[in-house]
Amino acid sequence: MTGNDKVNPLTSGVGIQPPTAAAPEKSPEELLEDLHLHQIELEMQNEALRVMHQAVVASRDRYMQLYDFAPICYLTLNQDGLITEANLTCANLLQIKRENLLKSRFDRLVTPDDHDRWHRHFLYVKQHCGRHTYELTLHRADNTPFYGQIDCLNSSDASTTLIRLALTDITERKQTEEALRIAAAAFEMQACIIVTDAQKFALRVNRAFCRVTGYRPNEVVGVSPLFLRSGVHEAGFYHNLWETVAREGYWEGEIWDKRKNGEIFPVWQTITAVTDKKGHISHYVGSFTDITAQKQAERVLLDARSRLESQVVHSKEELEQIKAEVTAVNNALEVLLKHREKDKTEAKCALVEEMESTVFPFLKQLKQENANRQQDRLIGILEHNLQEMVKSYGCPTDISSAFRQLSPVEVQVASMVRQGLPTKLIAATLKISAGTVGIHRKHIRKKLGLDNQAVNLRSYLLGLAE
């Protein structure tokens, strides 16, 4: 046995019992034998202690492995909130090396919005024994936030303040809770919802379903929703419906259902198949909306459309009749206009013949026999005017409407201007001064809107007669 394997009986608490005062003296051989026996006992005790030490070391290693690789983050804080211990799970969750995590302040891991809450909780835990649980928002090394549940235990003694923390990432649980709240709110929306198992037995309905159908939840749960069938659709309709759900995963369309009171009503329905991780159908979710009001509105619109179509047909018939009447009237008018044109032409021809046979010859004879130049001019003017009247007979011209704006004297002046007579001759014929003729010419230009002096009055009047 080596020196390292020997155990000091004074320090280990195991030794040879001192001899009593009454013990007889032993011989050297006996003492040597006793020492040999005690040596064997010490070696056995030393071996037991070595085995026990190995067991303690192995137990400590197992504890450290369990501590470091536990699924929960474990930390220890001192009275100042500094991290004195942390397992590897905690370092991995926070994405911080353990050596950098130790001796750092725990509040650095808390988001600014929860700083005050953490300090209040930490102060309370230091002052009270027992376990305390809080939920805080923390962040990792890259500042990505996550929800954490912290279980605190005050393990302080008279000399040291130690706060043990168990930190759990509850982000997924929070998201699940939020999703469940949203799902619960969506489940109680205005649309009617029924959830069945894979065998199509109802598991749950919402309030809208009960309100629209008239059934109470206890009348529906555990029952196949066949009670909603109205009898309007044939069996083949439902067969094709469920074939579509099996093939596509959902079906959507219009269907007629029946309320508890027997009333048949239309709905717009969607049936969705819910599958598990293996792809097997586990549930069916049916949602529908009562479209009775929509159908009534459609009926009103169809009735209105039918009435309008009837009115259109009737209006078309009336229009065709009116069109025929208008065509007949137009034809009659065309005939009348042709007769009128013929009569007008005949009248014009008769007038021309009459004028040429009974008027113009006499005027020509008067001009030849009359030696008075003044009267000769008047006869010439009269003859010219008569010729213009005959020429324009039955043909409306702008000259007539233009002359209606002028006074009688201005009409005479305008007529002679149109014939090309000079101002002095016009003045002599009308027995007025040339200045007065000039004034009449200005008045004529003004009344006819000839503000532009570059426009010749005679040319303008000739243009009106064309």
Automatic annotation (TrEMBL):
Signal peptide (UniProt feature, chain positions): none
Q: Which domain of life is it from?
A: Bacteria
Q: Which NCBIfam families match?
A: sensory_box
Q: What name goes with this protein?
A: PAS domain-containing sensor histidine kinase
One GO MF term: DNA binding
Ranges for domain PAC = 132-182, 251-303
Q: Which InterPro entries match?
A: DGC-Regulatory_Protein, PAC, PAS, PAS-assoc_C, PAS-like_dom_sf, Sig_transdc_resp-reg_C-effctor, Tscrpt_reg_LuxR_C, WH-like_DNA-bd_sf
